Amino acid sequence: MKLLITNTLPYNAKSTTNILVENGCVKAIAPDLHDNEAIQIDGHGLTLLPGLVDVHVHFREPGFEYKETIATGTLAAAAGGYTAVCTMPNLKPTPDNLEHLNVQREIIRRDAIIKVFPYGCITVGQVGKELADIEALNPYVCAFSDDGHGVQKDEMMQEAMMRVKQCGSRIAAHCEVNSLLHNGYIHQGEYAATHNHRGICSQSEWEQIARDVELVAKTGCQYHVCHISTKESVEIIRKAKQQGLPVTCETAPHYLLLTDKDLKEEGRYKMNPPVRSEADQEALIQGVLDGTIDIIATDHAPHSAEEKSRGLEKSAFGIVGIETAFPLLYTNFVRTGKMTMDKLVALMSHNPRKIFQLENPIDIVVGSKADFTLMDLNACSHIDSSNFKSKGKATPFENVLVYGRCCMTIVDGKIVFQANN
Q: pTM value?
């Protein structure tokens, strides 16, 4: 199958060009390309980006299909401009051995319309008592995580790091000290104090990151921190990088765009870790801009409408974000001049591929895989969760005006998503 994308503007170019795709790869790039046998795609007015990559999503299948499935999750991802995702292991069965992982792999093979790279568990059942079958899982997973749970025992995490390092893989850690949570559910800050809510202290996150960095220094394991939210976390990771340790990290759009002052008494503002103070937000933005934070992931975490309708205290943790991440970040950072498009593409495509050693393209060049998204950067609309492809509808950005619309997503040279005109 051949595609010819005409008159499109690559995100890092100054003039439009044509791109010929054949057998899933870029065959030629030139302004005067023609091929009568190819399917013609008019890219006039559209910007061509390498496919976005989200290293932190919850697609819920197997086990919790009422929240999301591989089919609905990958369609939502494609609608957001993503061509690859890494799926977290809080599933049923949890992928803590090869037999359990293969249940998920078969569903991915059958239903995914983009590339899906599953995580394996660090511990059996993600309960922190016994290490998962790391060696057997390793050839088939992108990394190891107990996301949703911090590994509480120091010796358990050290042993996990040693075994993961032997496999040449990495740990992606959800950092949370259980003894410091005190049944909190929003940030321990001004809103919690004035509205009589139980707060989650920042220390519950950064204390475990500090412990893990010490273990990385001992073991040499490649270590990635999930969804950081505090200024202390940024500084710990900055110092670890200065020491030359193999440490990377991610944050999510909601931590860059919201603080606890934005909270409302609705479940769509409840996520873990919670959005925090203005000082934390400022440190995260600086960390993104100076390279301390490597990746912006979404932590796309769909739940049923009922599970998110119980207010801040009783709603399930988690919001959706894979369909809104690019327009939110483009609108608030690139259009405002705070960040270049090159930097945003690095955070959402290049760096995830490099760090997690996923398949190319690193960029749009002859010979690379044809994993693209075509964006109309001038299109503006209000975010409307009723239009989401995801089963989950809980977003704190409902009705926010954004620029940037995904018009088409291409994976391995095949059109997997095309927006309605």
A: 0.97
In DSSP terms, which residues pair with 116 in a beta bridge?
Answer: 85
- 299 in active site: yes
Contact by Cβ (8 Å): 252, 296:
yes
Burial 267-285 (b: 16+ CB within 10 A, else e): bbbbbbbbbbbeebbebbb
Which region, left, alpha or beta, applies to residue 45 given φ > 0 means left and ψ of -120 to 50 means alpha? left
Of 101, 181, 178, the closest CA to residue 133 belongs to 101
User: How does pLDDT run across 163-194, given as a tens digit for each residue?
Assistant: 999 999 999 999 999 999 999 999 999 999 99
C-alpha to C-alpha distance for 141 and 295, rounded to whole angstroms? 19
Task: Tell me the residue type at 228.
Answer: I
The residues, any chain, with a CB within 8 Å of residue 313's CB and separated by 6 or more, are: 185, 197, 198
Nearest 10 degrees: Cα torsion 305, 306, 310, 315: -70
First to last CA, the chain: 24
Phi first, then psi: what are they for 186, rounded to 5°? Answer: -135, 175
Among residues 96, 133, 299, 371, the one annotated as catalytic is 299
